[in-house]
Design a protein that fits this description.
The structure is a single chain. The chain is mainly α. Among the domains are: 7-60, no CATH class; 71-173, no CATH class. It contains 9 helices and no strands. The termini are far apart. Pfam families: CTE_SPB4. One of its GO terms (molecular function) is helicase activity. This is DEAD box polypeptide 55.
């Protein structure tokens, strides 16, 4: 299995292999440059993982077989099954797409990097007959993929009930209107959402500043205007001096009356 995008969910999923006291086993396949993820699980989730040798893995998957299966032999067997049943072929494609998208969305994208994937070798490992169309594969190097000579249209479903169900689904799709939507990689879609959010925030700040400036202008318009006229100031000073003299005169008259 592959680790889920969230480490805690991955550990929980592994724990479901052993329930009610029963024993279970979960196999995690990692590339040599991804071994650091094991240390991450030990530190972050407090779980211990045991490394299996190729021989132990062969004995676990095929105990009755004494021969060591090469990757090419495993790929050949998977492709034989996919050629016999279209349902298995569709499942292999969905598994490949899910695996690639997991690398795109994982929380430890520094340890499990999408750029380090060899999509050609990965397609062979999943036993694909053709590489699917994905935005992540648009500019990727897929020269290592060995596409077998097979006509995909001639691959039929092994079970008649599944074939009938697929025919009904195809007929319903033809009746429904088609909406063409340009598919984008997850990173570009996230970047577009971030740009849209930034534009919305910028527009909101601009509206807030414009409202504040307008309220400030309306407040300033109601304030009394002060004219810096020197003549008016001199007149005020003269009136103040006369007022002081009048008060002194009244005070002197009051003292004279008392005497």
């Amino acid at each position: 299995m592959i680790p889920l995008c969230i480490s805690s969910a991955f550990v929980h999923r592994c724990g479901r292999t052993a329930r009610c006291g029963a024993e279970g086993c979960a196999l995690l396949f990692l590339a040599p440059n991804e071994v650091a993820y094991v240390n991450f699980l030990e530190i972050n989730q407090k779980v211990q993982l045991t490394e299996l040798s190729p021989y132990e893995l062969d004995q676990m998957c095929a105990p009755a077989s004494d021969t060591h299966l090469t990757p090419e032999a495993v790929t050949s067997r998977i492709r034989i099954f996919c050629k016999r049943d279209r349902l298995l072929y569709e499942k292999s494609v969905r598994a490949f797409v899910s695996y690639v998208q997991f690398y795109r969305k994982h929380e430890c994208h520094l340890l499990l990097s999408l750029k380090d994937l060899n999509f050609g070798v990965l397609g062979n490992a999943f036993g694909l007959l053709r590489l699917p169309r994905m935005p992540e594969l648009r500019d990727a190097n897929t020269s290592a993929f060995n596409a077998p000579a097979v006509d995909l249209d001639k691959i039929k479903y092994r079970e008649k009930s599944v074939a009938k169900q697929r025919e009904l689904m195809k007929a319903n799709e033809q009746l429904q209107p088609k909406f063409h939507k340009n598919s984008k990689p997850w990173s570009k879609a996230k970047e577009a959402r971030q740009k849209k959010h930034d534009k919305r925030q910028k527009r909101s700040r601009k509206f807030t500043n414009a409202t504040a400036d307008q309220s400030k202008q309306s407040t300033d318009s109601h304030r009394p205007t002060i004219h810096d006229d020197t003549k008016d100031i001199e007149e005020l000073n003269e009136d103040y001096r006369l007022l002081k003299r009048a008060r002194k005169r009244k005070a002197a008259e009051a003292e004279f009356d008392c005497d």
